[in-house]
Amino acid sequence: xxxxxxxxxxxxxxxxxxxxxxxxxxxxxxxxxxxxxxxxxxxxxxxxxxxxxxxxxxxxxxxxxxxxxxxxxxxxxxxxxxxxxxxxxxxxxxxxxxxxxxxxxxxxxxxxxxxxxxxxxxxxxxxxxxxxxxxxxxxxxxxxxxxxxxxxxxxxxxxxxxxxxxxxxxxxxxxxxxxxxxxxxxxxxxxxxxxxxxxxxxxxxxxxxxxxxxxxxxxxxxxxxxxxxxxxxxxxxxxxxxxxxxxxxxxxxxxxxxxxxxxxxxxxxxxxxxxxxxxxxxxxxxxxxxxxxxxxxxxxxxxxxxxxxxxxxxxxxxxxxxxxxxxxxxxxxxxxxxxxxxxxxxxxxxxxxxxxxxxxxxxxxxxxxxxxxxxxxxxxxxxxxxxxxxxxxxxxxxxxxxxxxxxxxxxxxxxxxxxxxxxxxxxxxxxxxxxxxxxxxxxxxxxxxxxxxxxxxxxxxxxxxxxxxxxxxxxxxxxxxxxxxxxxxxxxxxxxxxxxxxxxxxxxxxxxxxxxxxxxxxxxxxxxxxxxxxxxxxxxxxxxxxxxxxxxxxxxxxxxxxxxxxxxxxxxxxxxxxxxxxxxxxxxxxxxxxxxxxxxxxxxxxxxxxxxxxxxxxxxxxxxxxxxxxxxxxxxxxxxxxxxxxxxxxxxxxxxxxxxxxxxxxxxxxxxxxxxxxxxxxxxxxxxxxxxxxxxxxxxxxxxxxxxxxxxxxxxxxxxxxxxxxxxxxxxxxxxxxxxxxxxxxxxxxxxxxxxxxxxxxxxxxxxxxxxxxxxxxxxxxxxxxxxxxxxxxxxxxxxxxxxxxxxxxxxxxxxxxxxxxxxx
Length: 825
Known about the structure:
This protein has a domain at 164-247 and 321-356. Helices cover 4% and strands 54% of the residues. The chain has four helices and 49 strands. Residues 1-25 form the signal peptide.
């Protein structure tokens, strides 16, 4: 069952070999695509990747097509130190990233699309039809990239218009009823103007996860369109203009998580033979109402049988998840004046979008239960006792409305001479709003809570945040070639961030099992309705200093110090007491060696990070109500080394290896609660600070020390290996590619505990590409995760009312396979 689809590979290879029985008849190609010179703009200049003192992994369009790198998740396989959680859209580099998506916080790895800053990684996953190159820069990039580049940056470079006409069409089909169609056309309009137009349509109708309720599957399901138009204009001989517009439209069912054993399984007693139904025992919202035992009609009993086949991609809900992106438009402009001794360049951009997400909250598949509350003065005994109907339609709703723009102007030297420099000014502005919460529009009691304002949408919990943000910076960098082989680099950036926020929080207490608490038969009572305004301003320095030594034409080494800075942040929407954190700083020390010849490229880097004021939420136990997350600053350190090598063993065979070892851990933190170990009784727990008591003197929680716990989202070891073998024929060539990747176990919470540990996993990808002799068309057969392993982005865990721990896994895609056709005009 696990291997039946692999038969496509010998069939495809056999058919292609039959076209020409003699390999090697076509003229031999001297170099692999994987060894071609890569020009990057990691230092805001066009430079050979092997000549710059920056640890960079670059994915060109040709490389991505050859080995099958389609998404940011795929890029993590071949980028040392890089991890990505797709369900939370979080990048992490060498232990530096973000630990919360709280409104008012910022990522720790910056993403730039044609020089325009964005907080989302989605552009990095766009097809090679749209992106010419994706560069992942490791280590603080605050001098030149600035905003939120404390851990590194992802620099996305789109495909530009061309001087000669070219066009390409692509079409593909795959399992899970997936198909795509893409097209691009580029060329000159006249002697001074060039245009490129691209579009893509992507459909997947079946999901990676199966709903036991019988509804449509989820995960990977999409109806997505991308549009891109760019133009280049020569304004005289010395001025260049580049303008680009792109739009993305989504309608997804993008589940990537599923609850894992130990489950609470229940069987509906009225259904012959029983039917599995996941009934949660969580705290907030309607979940607690399902613990009423014998008073539920129909009665339920625990369902202890294993799910069919122990499939970890099963779920059981009655509200389909859905994510939509609408009104998303981005405009980018570059205007460059070539003076002869320097380039004066303006980079501007504007973007806006509306994102909506709805997911099932209560994890219950049944539409409703009827509950008979205990008799009381406000609820007389039978026959006049009131029955409360509990609707299983609770959902989590999230909305993000954002618009932002930036302006940058820089002056970059272009003259000959030992001293090269760059000066720049930068401005960024963002307006955004993020309403979210848990609601149940079917529950009449919630729509009219006792003694409070109407709640027509049925919110249990509603939080809204509005943010107005401005950022300004000035930067410079000098490169001095003071001998033929030695170059010194020094740079600095001053940044100032200002944030103004508004937050509103409303919470409705809803528990039919406690009808008499408020002297009313309506078990919905408002307990929180608050709002406030917050604002602050932060400023700081980032920079770099180092030396490069060019040992020979093929070999260079470097040593450098970099300082990263990320502005302060708010946690908006919850009216938390500790809602603000100070800026992060990162002092990074790195040495590296780069070797590059016609047949071998090897890059090695070692680093040490002193990470101050890491911004993180922590859990605090309340005397009543659910735990709350407060925002705080912590210290950490990270150290490790990385190896990237590409070797053309002989003309048809090329091997690639990527490896990283990283030891990243907290160095401070006392009195932090683990909500799954409130009394600090785990064998690895180190109590720290006084216990938290309620009004009766009972211990609610005992804080713990964080020092020595591993940083989340950073595996200690990660390795990827790829082999490419090309067979030439008189009518074309066949390229066979195989990738093996392995990632160590990784922690998903602040404490290094087994219940939040995502286990190690490996992945095997296979690819066969047929290219005709004129390189006009390609046929690609592919299989990803061909052994159908469970790969994990992360793990979350919650303690249930019965004391068990319920894990939720964030899973990477299962085995996928298909075929793609590309044709070039």
